[in-house]
Design brief:
The complex is a heterodimer of chains A (143) and B (247). Chain A is 66% helix and 0% strand. Classes of the chains: A mainly alpha (143), B mainly alpha (247). The complex binds ligand C2E (2 copies).
């Protein structure tokens, strides 16, 4: 019945939430590294810390999905051993001055690769979740 | 690699050194991107995404200064709450809701309260408009303008002294909030009761939005109305709830 649909939607929603969290974290790291590259090339005059808001903000034009959302963390491992945990826990951002241009570029490529995978999975899970939501909506629809 | 981060924490807590703090801010700043994206639901044009992020960074810095690494809690969990709180606090402190809209909202709320007291039920748009000496279209335009300010603005306009967002409280009362623990049992019961006394369509909009998690467009589809109409109904229901919470 409806309870079963709700439960399955909640499960897919949890997966979607987890993927979205890691995706946003990767986006942040990516954009910070890109800024550092521009700063080194002289394209950017500000320091990283000064530019933080403009680096991390989404474009104004971004159109919202219109759903009620809360910043809920997915369950996070104490010590993670997945590739995502290694990337998010590494010292690239905290030792930025010590990392040479080649090091920055390879860090960026690693992030881009895993971000593409996660965004793809996220799209698929969103489709699954949206199908369950459509089923819920249908139960309410006044024909 | 993860040890680098934990030794950075040790170094910062031991020395309070600015450079260590700055490195921690940069390391965890993507958390602010995550929170700002979720909290800024439907904010209007005059609130800059970059502003939300800078408010959030203050919350992050606060969290970094106050966090105790050896307590065994995850920093992310601690930081998320401070970041969200900082963004909401700052939004409320800003005077970004136009005075005229704020005044309009107060006027509608007052009329709603008077009529609800007299009729012992939520008035229809027609009854409310007549009571205010407006046409239904004028009333709905006003509701649209208020709801265009976004859900956070409804909080700001209607519950500026509350430390919880009204949306979170409504969701919590329906058993679907982010943390069911934050609301006093008494408050949750009053709110749940107030929701149950709303007319069917108002209650449905709140249920679909906060409990079933549909988008505004999907709700419009279910009800057979425009998304903008859904926003107006949502604004009116929230005002009605607020009246019942404060009577
Ligand atoms: N309203 C809304 N729209 C959404 C959401 N998720 C995806 N979209 C839309 O779907 C498009 C493709 O998303 P993607 O495949 O994840 O592919 C994305 C993603 O892989 C990446 N990306 C997105 N945001 C960021 C960011 O802030 N930083 C970085 N480095 N990459 C990003 O760039 C690609 C293109 O991004 P866009 O041009 O923005 O284009 C996005 C955006 O228009 C969402 O939660 N809400
Ligand atoms: N089932 C389902 N769920 C969906 C869909 N689109 C988004 N979501 C979920 O709903 C949350 C809020 O989406 P939003 O209002 O568009 O709000 C988004 C949007 O404003 C922005 N954003 C995220 N990704 C992109 C992107 O690729 N491009 C742009 N321009 N903005 C993005 O950041 C906000 C927060 O994003 P998240 O943390 O990822 O959180 C997202 C995600 O968890 C969908 O089609 N189906």
């Amino acid at each position: 019945g409806i309870e079963d649909v709700r439960e399955r939607r909640a499960l897919s929603g949890d997966v979607e939430n987890e993927l979205s969290y890691y995706r946003r974290m990767l986006h942040g790291r990516m954009d910070l590294i890109r800024f550092e590259q521009r700063r080194r090339s002289g394209e950017e005059k500000r320091s990283l810390i000064e530019a933080l808001p403009s680096i991390l903000a989404d474009p104004e034009s971004g159109h919202r999905s219109g759903r009620y959302e809360v910043p809920d963390l997915p369950p996070l491992p104490d010590v993670g051993h997945r590739e995502i945990d290694h990337i998010l826990g590494d010292d690239v951002l905290i030792r930025l001055d010590a990392i040479d241009d080649a090091g920055l570029e390879s860090a960026l490529e690693a992030i881009q690769e895993i971000e593409a995978e996660i965004s793809e999975q996220r799209r698929q899970v969103q489709a699954v979740e949206d199908a369950f939501v459509e089923e819920l909506a249908a139960r309410y629809r006044v024909s | 690699p993860a040890d680098e981060v934990s030794s950075l924490w040790d170094r910062f807590k031991a020395t309070g050194e600015d450079r260590a703090r700055e490195a921690l801010i940069i390391q965890y700043s993507p958390l602010v991107k995550f929170v700002a994206g979720r909290v800024g639901v439907g904010l209007p044009r005059n609130v800059d995404q970059a502003d939300l992020v800078s408010y959030g960074i203050f919350g992050l810095i606060d969290a970094i200064d106050k966090f105790e690494p050896d307590r065994g809690f995850k920093f992310e969990t601690y930081a998320i709450n401070r970041i969200k709180g900082a963004i909401l606090d700052e939004l409320r402190a800003l005077d970004w809701v136009p005075r005229s809209v704020r005044a309009r909202a107060r006027e509608i709320e007052r009329s709603l309260a008077e009529l609800e007291h007299r009729l012992q039920r939520t008035p229809s748009d027609d009854e409310l408009a007549r009571h205010m000496g407006n046409s239904v279209d004028e009333l709905r335009d006003a509701l649209a303008e208020i709801s265009n300010l976004g859900i956070v603005a409804l909080d700001e306009v209607l519950a500026p002294d509350s430390s919880n967002s009204l949306g979170d409280m409504v969701a919590d009362s329906m058993g679907a909030g982010p943390e069911a623990a934050f609301q006093k049992e008494e408050t949750r019961r009053i709110l749940a009761d107030a929701i149950n006394r709303l007319p069917d369509r108002e209650r449905l909009v709140l249920t679909l939005y906060y409990y079933e998690g549909l988008t505004l467009a999907e709700i419009g589809d279910v009800l057979g109305v425009t998304e903008s109409r859904v926003c107006q109904i949502h604004a009116k229901s929230v005002m009605s709830l607020r009246n019942r919470m404060t009577e």
